[in-house]
Write a structure and sequence with these properties.
Number of domains: 2
Largest sheet: 7 strands, mixed
Bound molecules: S-adenosylmethionine
Oligomer: single chain
CATH class of the largest domain: Alpha Beta
Shape: globular
Number of helices: 12
Number of strands: 9
Helix content: 40-55%
Length: about 270
């Protein structure tokens, strides 16, 4: 009910404040404050309903750059202990095994959508031979905060859209990780391009922990589509990685607050 009322208010706000709405829709305004966030949610829903995946992707990126992104990290700070160190940890163990059997070939790790950096920090103490750990995130506030929090460590942080950043830095020996729902904000074709680009830099590894929202069945569907409350993209990661020439070393779908796809693949 609360969600329906929010949707109606958002749709009304889009009509009543056309200039603000246009500015958000054009990507000129990052949504801050209740009104802009309402309008942004309405635009996200409209893009998903009309099948305009490019607009949906852009609106979701804007959402993460604004207030809603800024407040996420404190609001869901318990995820690290309850989920990452809990039901998601088999992914880390699988990644450690892959790194240990790589005979020192894997030397750098980029975490896309690193958020508060705790996952990156944890991994930096676990993966032998990997000597460069970099977190990428589109939310500038959290990247600035991470630079303070992890000052004096070897961790590096960069803000910006990860697809462009990754293309500049990927080289043989790269591990690309995303944790807790990040690839869901990218288009299927962006992931296909990213995985194909990474495969060219072999040896590389991709390790993902991504949500599979209700109704998306990777044993039946290969195409990505918006799903879940946020209307972000459910992807068939295994299919996309295999299409790019990767070999899946580990896969699991734990059922926690919802289903997750955990996957480690080598290319
Ligand atoms: C659900 S949060 C997960 C954060 C963190 N990995 C965790 O589990 O706490 C999604 C993260 O992806 C980031 N993100 C979304 N779109 C992005 C993009 N295009 N490039 C880089 N980061 C992005 C958001 O800013 C946010 O920090």
């Amino acid at each position: 009910m609360k969600e329906v009322i929010k949707q109606i208010c958002g749709d009304v706000a889009v009509r009543v404040f056309p200039k603000v709405s246009l500015s958000i829709a054009r990507g000129e305004t990052v949504p801050r404050g209740s009104l802009e966030k309402l309008i942004s949610s309405s635009l996200i829903r409209q893009a998903a309903l009309s099948g305009d995946h490019k607009s949906l992707r852009n609106r979701l990126s804007q959402y993460w750059q604004g207030d809603a992104g800024d407040s996420f990290y404190d609001k869901f700070a318990d995820r690290f202990e309850s989920s990452f160190l809990g039901g998601h940890y088999p992914l880390v163990e699988a990644l450690i095994d892959v790194v240990n059997s790589s005979e020192g070939e894997l030397t750098q790790l980029y975490e896309i959508g690193c958020g508060d950096g705790r996952v990156l920090h944890h991994l930096s103490g676990k993966l032998e031979g990997v000597n460069r750990f970099t977190g990428l995130d589109i939310n500038e506030m959290i990247i600035k905060k991470n630079r303070d929090t992890y000052a004096g460590t070897s961790l590096e942080f960069h803000s910006g859209d990860a697809t462009a950043l990754l293309e500049e830095v990927a080289r043989p020996g790269t591990i690309v990780m995303s944790y807790g729902g990040v690839m869901e904000y990218f288009l299927e074709e962006e992931l296909a391009t990213m995985f194909a680009m990474l495969k060219q830099k072999s040896p590389v590894v991709v390790a993902l922990v991504e949500p599979l929202y209700d109704g998306y069945d990777p044993s039946l569907e290969t195409e990505s589509r918006p799903s879940g409350l946020e209307l972000s993209f459910s992807h068939n990661h295994r299919h996309l990685l295999e299409q790019a020439g990767f070999t899946v070393q580990f896969q699991s779908q734990p059922e926690m607050e919802f289903r997750w796809m955990m996957i480690v693949a080598q290319g």
